Structure formats: structure tokens, C-alpha cells
UniProtKB/TrEMBL annotation:
One of its GO terms (molecular function) is lipopolysaccharide binding. One of its GO terms (cellular component) is secretory granule. Residues 1-20 form the signal peptide. It comes from Bos indicus x Bos taurus (Hybrid cattle). Residues 44-219 form the Lipid-binding serum glycoprotein N-terminal domain. Belongs to the BPI/LBP/Plunc superfamily. Plunc family. This is Short palate, lung and nasal epithelium carcinoma-associated protein 2A.
Length: 239
């Protein structure tokens, strides 16, 4: 038997009086997501931790080389990790995020011992509602940004890896509507877009950024130096 609240939601959507009902639905979805994030998404799928540990091992093995070059393997491993995370998000919220791609991971040297790190992520998103099914399909672009540096203790001379903040900037999340269910009110489509923005923002803050921080902090200073590479220097001609 169809649940009563689903029938009420459908009638509200058709009658154009759905704003408060959608808010209730959105709040329920976000509540379930936040609850899952607080527990840790790895508790729902142990494969997440396995992939993450394999990614750390793969990076550490690359650091044994004299020069650490970017490889497709690292990007594929990161794609696998993020895909698995979003699979759990789908189970918790019903929002499907798939076809995750990490086009490039860049370390832009800002000094001899520091660099800005950029990790762009793209994916396809589908938002569904009870009875209505799919209401909107979106193209997702997220740019994770942080920094990494090597700091030396003035007294002991020991060096350590320091990872900067990974800001949860709404401007770093871009959503483009690829397809919308015909006949739906704009409010319903806007609900889907805003829900995804809040959902992705929460995942970035509570899951992706902490993973990137832990990944970088697990590397030793020599490895970070290799990833940073040589700073760009502007030479001036002597007169």
C-alpha cells in the first residue's frame, strides 16, 4: 500500500502547494545523511577503508622513485574511493551520484617547501521523488582545494608535513541541469538542485576533505618534497 505521505506529496506537487512538503522531504534526507556522516560512511561499507588504504600504499610506493610523476593509477584509485563514498550516500538519501571522474591532481608549487593542491571532481547526479521518479539530472563539478607544506622546528630541526584547510566553499560546487521531468514546477526542480548542493557540501566537509588531509599527512616529508617539485622562478636579465 502506498504510504499516505507519498500521496500527499504527489497531490501537493500537482497542485503547486508543495513548498513546505518538499522542505520536509529535504530536511529528512539531509538528516539521514548527516547521521551517516557522523557515524562514518566506512561503517556502512568496509570497501571504502580498503580502497583508501590501497590509495595510501600506492602513493607511498610512488614516493620511492627519485621523481614522483602523476599517474592515471592514482586518479583511478581516487575515483574509486569517491565513487564508493557516493554509493553509500545514495543508499542513505536516494540521490544517485555516479560516473565520478578525477581529471587531474595538481600540486602547484608556491615556494620551495609548499604547494597548492587542486583535485577537480566531475559526476552525473539524478534526483528522484516518491511516485514521481526521476525529477532532474545534473552535471556536477567540484574543485577540492587545499595546501601542503613542510615546516621545520627551529629548536629540534625536525621537519613535519602540514596540510592547510580544505574550505567548504559553495562556489566550488557547480551544478548544471541536463534534463528535467516535463511538466514539473520550477520549484520542484530548484528543490532538487538545492538538495544536491547541500548534500555534496556536507560530503565534502565531513568525508572528502578529511580523507584528503589524512592521505597527505600520511606521506613523509621527502615524498611531499617530490610532489611539490621545484618552485617556478622568474629570472631577470642583468643590465
Amino acid at each position: 500500500m502506498v504510504q499516505l505521505w507519498k500521496l500527499v506529496l504527489l497531490c501537493g506537487l500537482l497542485a503547486g502547494t508543495s513548498e513546505s512538503l518538499l522542505d520536509i522531504r529535504g530536511n529528512d534526507v539531509l538528516r539521514r545523511l548527516i547521521s551517516g556522516l557522523e557515524r562514518g560512511l566506512g561503517t556502512f561499507d568496509s570497501t571504502i577503508e580498503i580502497i583508501f588504504q590501497n590509495l595510501k600504499t600506492e602513493l607511498e610506493s610512488r614516493c620511492l622513485n627519485d621523481v614522483v610523476e602523476e599517474t592515471q593509477q592514482t586518479e583511478n584509485s581516487l575515483e574509486g574511493l569517491i565513487s564508493r563514498i557516493f554509493q553509500v550516500v545514495n543508499r542513505l538519501t536516494g540521490v544517485r551520484i555516479r560516473n565520478v571522474q578525477v581529471p587531474d591532481i595538481t600540486f602547484e608549487s608556491t615556494s620551495e617547501n609548499s604547494a597548492d593542491v587542486s583535485i577537480p571532481i566531475t559526476a552525473d547526479v539524478t534526483v528522484s521523488l516518491p511516485l514521481l521518479g526521476e525529477i532532474v539530472k545534473l552535471d556536477l563539478n567540484v574543485d577540492l582545494q587545499t595546501s601542503v607544506s613542510i615546516e621545520t622546528d627551529a629548536e629540534t630541526g625536525d621537519s613535519r608535513v602540514v596540510v592547510g584547510e580544505c574550505p567548504n566553499n559553495p562556489e566550488s560546487i557547480s551544478l548544471t541541469v541536463l534534463h528535467r521531468r516535463p511538466g514539473l514546477l520550477n520549484d520542484v526542480v530548484d528543490f532538487g538542485v538545492n538538495l544536491v548542493r547541500q548534500l555534496v557540501s556536507s560530503v565534502v566537509q565531513h568525508e572528502l576533505c578529511p580523507r584528503i588531509r589524512e592521505l597527505l599527512e600520511s606521506l613523509d616529508t621527502e615524498c611531499i618534497k617530490k610532489l611539490i617539485g621545484e618552485p617556478q622562478v622568474t629570472t631577470q636579465q642583468e643590465i
